[in-house]
Every structure is written in structure tokens, then in C-alpha cells.
């Protein structure tokens, strides 16, 4: 079961996620309570071992800006979150990064890899809102493998969400926060433990 902890902004929470067994850690480079600068993302990612994927998360900016943001970070993956097109994914393919498409479960094409992405992240009806939703809708769509679940996940809800959706992985941000934009090391550990127990 693939686990991504997103919206990290401190060395302590990055280290906690890695030590607890996260498969990926995400750094938000565009407007958000969790936004960090490319310089901060580069510094935090430098301490992450190679077996853990470091992900640049961007939303609401054009591809030229995306390229500029990720150019000097040293991050190994790029997550385009929201209304990005196939052409947008094609326009960043030459960066040589693992590409993640993060979109609403209501998107018209939820086939993993349909936009040339390496990993599909399926989020709530309002991506990035952190709200819980009907995860069983995804099992009904029969997505197969190569996708992970996001939206409204927390320590107490993630096991049921996995069971209902059939997801092969999960992504969490607000669900491991003690306050908006402030990650809790204890909650990160508890979340990953809950996923490992469920999966």
C-alpha cells in the first residue's frame, strides 16, 4: 500500500514521515497554507533517501511557471493538481520526473496513465478540500491498479476508505495536521501505521 504524506514544510515532519515508512513526501510549491519555496523544498528533500519519492505539488499555474518552479528543486516527481490537460502533461514530460495526475473522481477519464502520468491520484469532488466523500464510488468505476486515494483521509477513516474504494495507495495532508497547515508528527506516525495495518 503506497503512502504519500503531502504538504510537508519542516525537517522534523519530513524525517518523521520517512522514518515511519512513507513511500512519498510532497512539497506544495503554489498558493496554499502549506506552500514552501523551491529553495525550502530543495533543502528538505536533500535529506530524503532515494527510496522515498519527493514530489513537487503544483496547482492553478501554467506549465511555464511549473517548469520554473521545479527546475532547481531536485525533486524526483511532479504532481499536477486540478484542471491540467493531456497537453500540459506532454509539455512537462521532458523534465524526466515521475508524473502524478491529481484530479477529482468526477473527471471524465480516470484510467491510470490516460494523460501520460505514472501515477493517478483520485481526490474528492473538490480536489484539495480535505473533505470526506463516498469512496465506494471508485470501486464502482473499476479503475484497476496504478491509482491512489485522497480527500478526507485521517487516522480513524483511512482503513474504511481503502476497503470501500479498492485503492492501491493513499495520500494525506490535512488529515495529519494539528492545525491548518501544521503537521503533527504523532498523527503522521499513526496514519502510516493505520494504513499498514489495513493494507
How does this structure look, described?
With 199 residues, the protein is an alpha/beta fold. It is built from 7 helices and 10 strands. The strands form 2 sheets. It has an 8-stranded parallel β-sheet. Strand 1, helix 1 and strand 2 form a beta-alpha-beta unit. Helix 6 (158-165) packs parallel to helix 7. It is globular.
In short:
The protein contains seven helices and ten strands. The protein has an eight-stranded parallel sheet with strand order 7-6-5-4-3-2-1-8. Strands 9-10 form a two-stranded antiparallel sheet.
Considering the chains and any ligands shown, give keywords for the structure.
199 residues; alpha/beta; eight-stranded parallel β-sheet; two-stranded antiparallel ribbon; 7 helices
- Please give the order of strands in the largest beta sheet: 7-6-5-4-3-2-1-8
Computed over alpha carbons, the radius of gyration is 15 Å
Estimate the helix proportion, in percent: 25-40%
Give the beta-strand count. Answer: 10
- In N-to-C order, the SSE pattern is EHEHEHEHEEHEHEEEH
Distance between the termini: 6 Å
Layout of strands and helices, then pairs:
Layout: E1 2-5, H1 11-20, E2 24-28, H2 38-45, E3 53-58, H3 63-70, E4 77-81, H4 86-92, E5 98-104, E6 119-123, H5 136-141, E7 147-149, H6 158-165, E8 169-172, E9 177-179, E10 182-183, H7 185-198
Parallel strand pairs: 1-2, 1-8, 2-3, 3-4, 4-5, 5-6, 6-7
Antiparallel strand pairs: 9-10
Helix pairs in contact: 1-7, 6-7
Amino acid at each position: 500500500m503506497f503512502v504519500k504524506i503531502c504538504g510537508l514544510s519542516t525537517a522534523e515532519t519530513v524525517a518523521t514521515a520517512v522514518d515511519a515508512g512513507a513511500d512519498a513526501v510532497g512539497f506544495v510549491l503554489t498558493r496554499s497554507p502549506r506552500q514552501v519555496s523551491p529553495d525550502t523544498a530543495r533543502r528538505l528533500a536533500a535529506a530524503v533517501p532515494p527510496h522515498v519519492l519527493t514530489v513537487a505539488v503544483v496547482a492553478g499555474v501554467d506549465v511555464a511557471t511549473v517548469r520554473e518552479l521545479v527546475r532547481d528543486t531536485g525533486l524526483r516527481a511532479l504532481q499536477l493538481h486540478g484542471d491540467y490537460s493531456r497537453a500540459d502533461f506532454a509539455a512537462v514530460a521532458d523534465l524526466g520526473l515521475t508524473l502524478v495526475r491529481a484530479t477529482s473522481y468526477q473527471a471524465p477519464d480516470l484510467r491510470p496513465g490516460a494523460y501520460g502520468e505514472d501515477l493517478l491520484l483520485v481526490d474528492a469532488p473538490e480536489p484539495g478540500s480535505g473533505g470526506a466523500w463516498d469512496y465506494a464510488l471508485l470501486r464502482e468505476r473499476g479503475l484497476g491498479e496504478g491509482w491512489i486515494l485522497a480527500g478526507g483521509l485521517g487516522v480513524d477513516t483511512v482503513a474504511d476508505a481503502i476497503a470501500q474504494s479498492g485503492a492501491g495507495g493513499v495520500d494525506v495532508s490535512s488529515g495529519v495536521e494539528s492545525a491548518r497547515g501544521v503537521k503533527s508528527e504523532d498523527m503522521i506516525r499513526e496514519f502510516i501505521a493505520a494504513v499498514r495495518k489495513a493494507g
